[in-house]
Amino acid sequence: MLTAANGDDGALPDNGSILIIDDNPGNLRVLGAIIEQAGYDTRATLTGEMALRWLADHGCDLILLDIRMPDMDGYETCRRIKSRPGSRHIPIIFISALHDAGDKLRAFEEGGVDYITKPFNAGEVMARVRAHVELARARRALEDANRVLEERVVERTRQLEAAKSRAEHLAYHDALTGLANRRLFEDRLSRELRRVSRHGGGGAVLFIDLDHFKAINDALGHAVGDAYLRVLAGVMKDVLRDEDTLSRWGGDEFVVLLPALGGDDEAAASAGLVANKLANVIGTPVRVEGNDLRAGASIGVVLYPGDGRTVDDIIGHADAAMYAAKQAGRGKVEFFERRMQAIAEERYDLEHALQRALARDELFLVYEPRVGTEGRVMGVEAVMRWRHPRRGVIGAGAFLPLAEDSAIIEPLVAWWLRTALGQLADWQALLQPRGVSPLLAVTIPPGPVLKGDFVERLTALLADTGARPEGLEVQIAEDVLAPLGESAGDVAQGLKEAGVGLRVAGFGSGCSSLRLLGRLPIRGLTMNGAVVRGVPDDEAQVALARAIIATARILGLELLATEVETAAERAFLEAEGCEYFQGPAVAPPRAGDEMGAYLEAAAGHCI
Questions:
Q1: First-to-last C-alpha distance (Å) of the chain
Q2: CA angle, 570 as apex, 566 and 571 as ends, to 5°?
Q3: 3-class DSSP state for residue 591?
Q4: E strand segments, 60-184
Q5: Closest Cα partner for 26 from 6, 46, 9, 41?
Q6: How far is residue 188's CA from residue 172's CA, in Å, rounded to a whole number?
């Protein structure tokens, strides 16, 4: 019969116990009669507080809970029941006279398992009650059985075996992605080389390095970077055969073993096809924790046994080919050639020498003028050079990519900015009394730009050097915008608020989002040097140059063509509507003092 939940501690009946919570005694009587007629025992309370007190000492199979009650409604009562360890697993069916879909949705969000509307239909009530009582009892029975099993030696033995299996898996697999690690990869490659030695044939190894992955880590954090690596591992595996091995080599590097590809020509064709497929899937944006990310990849390919007969040789040659792909402009696929080994050794020497270059005062800046269509000087770009003790003067393109992959990039960029800003402050003192405001541009690698405190550190450097921010323009490469997506806007907005201009460099690589460009507070674009070098003779490059000029015009942005090497290039681009130019055919780079005199002489034409 219907019994008030008033502290009575009677045991639960075998047929099931149900607690009804409703502030309407009439509803309690109706529900109690329906449920008890089916052979269940019921307890009733008029408030949530009474129910909570009773549940503190008792249990039940199911709770029917009215939503609309004074003082504490059904939602709050449900939350408090679910917050207690002793009652959190009791299923709750909400009851209400309302048919609003929002109430139903909230009932399920608060932890309810079902919803009954008034007036009550006896058949519906009992169908739902029986189902949830049986489910609750089945769950408890399963939990009891599991507790018994966990106490048995057999279960403990199984757990130990599982732990051993996991330990063995971790010994041969990467903890983050679940892919093969170096140890497993080298073991499989070693076996494959023995097979090739006995039976002939050949295969390939691909060395993959993600482009600008460090920028993703710096801008979005390592948690997002790790999640991105896990996603990439999955999409790369989908491209490969079951017999291929994809391994994470470390950081953002992956190595792929493609066994049994046949003879040299067949192996080369198959390996090239797979490498390009991998480059395409890696270069496709993927959604990771609310961010559309795309890193791109540089891939080196080595064929065995022709280009290597030992594990170390093959990996080393694949790494050398990958570096050649990076040097070719990133996002490329390169097959190993013997000359690459010497280049790789040079790179190793250069990396170590670069660690000492700052301390030895071997780095210096030159300044490249930027000139408009009427000879008007719009500003200059600070470009880094390295006076190497044995190799002479080395351009930034030969050593900045090495610095980006090492810890030296931070002090290197700090020196670069401090030196350039000190020079800008001198020019401002010289020229601004004459009503001329020189503009200095610096193209900063992605890692330092996208760290959370870049704008603060830049502002501090401006204050230290005395340079005024309106004279500075920070350039970020276009291919950095693609992997960062909307998060690039935070840096852009910070620079704008600091009074510093922003320009997208190297436009024309095909990576950026025009929607994003239209939303960023940027001053202008620089046309990719590879596009400039193709005009006016290459029809495809001519079409691309025209498209870039049209894009800049539509977006209302200044367009600067860089690396202009011939008068023909400049004449064509100027005729097509490009506004500003930089490069050997425009004006040679100059040292800081020489550039000051140049700007003073051209003061009437300076912005």
A1: 93
A2: 110
A3: coil
A4: 62-66, 92-96, 114-117
A5: 46
A6: 11
Residue 2 pLDDT: 47
371 in Cβ contact with 582 (< 8 Å): yes
Measured CA to CA, the distance from residue 254 to residue 242 in angstroms comes to 17
Q: Which two structure tokens, joined as six digits, stand for 212?
A: 């600008």
Q: Domains (ranges, CATH) in the chain?
A: 2-150 (3.40.50.2300), 173-336 (3.30.70.270), 362-605 (3.20.20.450)
CA 42, CA 459: separation in Å to the nearest integer? 71
User: What distances in angstroms separate CA 450 from CA 328, 455, 468, 481, one per listed residue?
Assistant: 24, 9, 22, 11
Buried b / exposed e over 506-543, threshold 16 CB at 10 Å, is bbbbebbbeebbeebebbbbbbbbebbbbbbeeeebbe
Pairing of strands 580-581, 363-372: antiparallel
For residues 365-394, one letter each, b for 16 or more C-beta atoms within 10 angstroms of the residue's C-beta and e for the rest, the string is: bbbbbbbbeeeebbbbbbbbbbebeeeeeb
Quote the CA–CA distance of 97 and 117 in Å, as a whole number: 5
d(CA 234, CA 275): 16
The Cα 464–Cα 487 span in angstroms is 28
In contact, 233 and 252? CB cutoff 8 Å: no
**Distance of alpha carbon 513 from alpha carbon 518, whole angstroms:** 9
Residue whose entry in the numeric block shows the structure tokens 């960062």: 484
Instruction: Locate 329 and state its tokens.
Output: 């402009």
Instruction: Give the pairing type, strands 297-304 and 333-335.
Output: parallel
| 488, 476 contact by CB (below 8 A) | yes
CB 233 within 8 A of CB 286: no
pLDDT of residue 600: 81
Closest to 37 (Cα-Cα) out of 108, 105, 130, 100: 130
Write down the pLDDT at residue 59. Answer: 85
Residue 286 tokens, joined? 């993927």
Q: Count CA atoms closer than 13 A to 603's CA, side-chain side.
A: 14
Q: Distance (Å, rounded) from C-alpha 396 to C-alpha 477?
A: 14
The CA-based angle 33-37-43, given to 5 degrees, is 55
For 83, the 3-state DSSP assignment is coil
Low-confidence spans in the chain with pLDDT less than 70 = 1-15, 99, 160, 163, 167, 450, 452, 479-487, 508-516, 603-607
Residue 504, Cβ density class (10 Å: 0-12 exposed, 13-18 middle, ≥19 buried): buried
Tell me the Cα Rg of the chain. 35
Sign of torsion over alpha carbons 335, 338, 343, 347: positive
Which residue from 260, 334, 343, 344 is spatially nearest to 302, judged by alpha carbons?
334
Q: In sequence order, what are the beta bridge partners of 43?
A: 3, 19
Q: CB–CB of 297/208 below 8 Å?
A: yes
pLDDT in tens, 105-154: 888 888 899 998 888 888 888 998 999 988 888 888 888 887 787 777 77
